[in-house]
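Researcher: Good morning. I'm working through a list of sequences from a screen, and I'd like to move beyond sequence-only analysis. For each chain I'm collecting a predicted structure so we can compare shapes side by side. This is the next one on the list. No need for commentary yet; just the structure.
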Amino acid sequence: MIRGLAAAVGRTGLSMLSSVGAMTLTFWRTQRFLFPPRFDRDEMWRQLYKVGVASLPIVMMTALLVGVIMVIQSVVYVNKTGATSFVGSVAGVAVLSELGPALIGLMFSGRVGANATAELGTMVVSEQVDALRALAIDPVKFIVVPRFIAIVVSLVMLTLVGDLFGLVGGVLTSQLMLHIEWWAFVKAMLETGLLDDLVVGLIKAVCFGTVISTVSTTYGLNVTGGAKGVGKAVNGCVVATALGIFTFDYVITYLWYLWEG
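Model: Good morning. Structure tokens for this chain:
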């Protein structure tokens, strides 16, 4: 039993190391075609619409609800203490530096990352990727790089939109439930000095976008075992992306507060 458990742990560890190595290789091969830029620009624009513009409605709704829920949870505390002046500043910091990029990143990974893995995995299974190689077309240049750019750029822009809608949700809920005028809410946010938190949130968005694009394309291009393998790749992509987002979230937050301290 102990030997079996040790063997299973060893296989899991080797599998994780193999996955990390494959992702690192995909990332550096992607950078090779970015500097100088050599990729299919038409495909990039198609991906920008597909992963960016098409994600706007769900991002706006998610962010709006996050702002509403955050203020609702503070109602009891504010009613007990009367600390209405802190609602705007706390909401601003939470949305811009943490809830905005993290929640939008997770939602984006589930919608876009899993889709990219399934799409690329299907191309591998149907031998379309092999056909590209037979025509002397590098799949990374033609498939991966446009998706990398589209995912990173879209996530940064969607984070900005999500921040706006999250704050709007907080403002409306504060006025309706806590009777805090919108101008007092905005004034409290501005007095807190939220530019640093906005910068941190955008840095996180860039890192999260890099994680989502690298993980999803790596799992997609390394599919084996037909349709069943595509399903396993999608599942692995979702898990690995979530772990990557939380890991980078922790590292960036820790380094930022070390810098500020």
